[in-house]
Design a protein that fits this description.
The structure holds two protein chains of two kinds. By secondary structure, chain A is of the alpha/beta class. Helices cover 25% and strands 17% of the residues of chain A. The chains are: A alpha/beta, B alpha/beta.
């Protein structure tokens, strides 16, 4: 388990003093069908993007709250990792993108019929957002609306 | 800050009516952000699925997280990977 104490002093001091945000999601949603029949989508905050998509912008104060759409048929090793955080060791993810965006693993679970299917697209953010107002009010709701439009049954989210 | 971002995105998606599950690398952060379903994993920052090129380990993390969709107890659910 990683702990705040494991991070560099500058990150640690920032995070200790930071006022974390939350969003009221009550009462919560329930998966109403077996996983073996459900359509799943993935969300990663590793800053992944396709070569032809614009990279995330590390210079935006408070963080880049935009997102990129990743087609389900993408070849994982094509994905670029554009993440500005120095708290994030990228060595493992550069070797195997599944470490932060486990699409091959989900494809295998679909082949084994443990999961019904994967959505035709997934979503990528760059997670180092310290001022999340626009994330909460604009970009995350846009992604939620697109997932609903796709009739996705459940979403699996991965931080770095 | 990734763990906060994931928790916030999950909360917004859940609120729209789609159930979500998050992995988390920092218990302290997820306890404050409190998304609906979280699996804490005992791995370093940058390694949420455990280790590169280890499909069985990665599958076991995913399966344990997906199991939280089957739990019927009150939300939020905060489980640790074992």
């Amino acid at each position: 388990m990683a702990r705040l104490e494991d991070l560099a002093l500058s990150h640690r001091l920032f995070m200790k003093g930071y006022r974390y945000r939350s969003v009221d999601w009550s009462p919560g949603a329930r998966l109403v069908k077996p996983l073996s029949e459900a359509r799943l989508a993935l969300v990663s905050t590793a800053g992944l993007h396709l070569p032809h998509q614009p990279a995330f912008d590390p210079t935006i104060k408070g963080g880049d709250t935009s997102f990129r759409e990743l087609a389900n048929r993408v070849e994982l090793q094509q994905l670029r990792i554009g993440h500005r955080s120095s708290a994030f060791d990228q060595t493992g993810a550069r070797r195997d993108r599944n470490l932060v965006f486990p699409l091959d693993r989900f494809r295998e679970l679909v082949a084994r019929r443990e999961v019904g299917s994967l959505n035709h697209r997934h979503f990528s953010f760059m997670g180092s957002i310290t001022a999340p107002r626009r994330l909460i009010l604009e970009t995350a709701p846009q992604v939620a609306a697109e997932l609903r439009e796709d009739q996705v049954d459940a979403v699996f989210l991965v931080p770095v | 800050m990734c763990n906060q971002s994931v928790g916030l995105i999950a909360s917004v998606i859940e609120k729209s009516g789609i159930p979500t599950v998050c992995l988390s690398l920092l218990r302290e952060v997820s306890e404050k952000v409190r998304p609906p379903r979280t699996l804490f994993v005992p791995f370093p920052i940058g390694y949420p699925l455990g280790a590169p090129d280890q499909p069985e380990l990665q599958h076991s993390v995913i399966r344990e997280a997906l199991n939280l969709f089957r739990a019927t107890g009150p939300l939020p659910l905060l489980h640790s990977y074992e």
